[in-house]
Design brief:
The protein has one domain. With 140 residues, it is mainly beta. The chain contains three helices and eight strands.
Length: 140
């Protein structure tokens, strides 16, 4: 597995880590419920055994939002938390998390929306434990 490296500069003092691991559920079409914890899985109608580990990587394609039916993952990078706090399979779903839209917070330098790629680490490996919406580990 590759080591963690830095890719995108948000401002002069913040940098985004390009490779972070999270937990998620694959529903047969796409990944959802990023950062899910075994104690909350049943709230979403899932079993602990369905939780998988995924790598979230900032996509090299940061072009316009795609308005089609294909999965197009977007994540909100929080400058305060220095991690992705929301990840959704569509831009509009991510934008709905912010009452005044993401652009306002980007202008305040509180974070930034990035198109991300989600890759399974091991689809058949059981959940190893983590805190909700925090990276499982940093690869070294």
């Amino acid at each position: 597995m590759q080591g963690m490296y830095w890719q995108c500069i948000i401002d002069d003092s913040k940098m985004v880590k390009n490779n972070m691991s999270y937990t998620a559920i694959h529903n047969g079409k796409y990944f959802e419920h990023f950062g899910i914890h075994p104690s909350t899985a049943m709230l979403y109608g899932h079993k602990t055994e369905e939780i998988v580990n995924v790598d979230v990587i900032i996509s090299s394609d940061q072009g316009p939002v795609k308005n089609n039916l294909d999965v197009d993952y977007w994540g909100w990078w929080s400058n305060k938390d220095e991690r992705f706090t929301f990840i959704f399979p569509k831009y509009f779903l991510l934008n709905m998390c912010f009452p005044y839209g993401m652009k306002v917070l980007e202008e305040r330098n509180e974070g930034k929306a990035y198109r991300v790629e989600v890759n399974p680490i091991d689809m058949f490996k059981k959940f190893e434990g983590s805190e909700i919406l925090k990276p499982l580990k940093e690869n070294s």
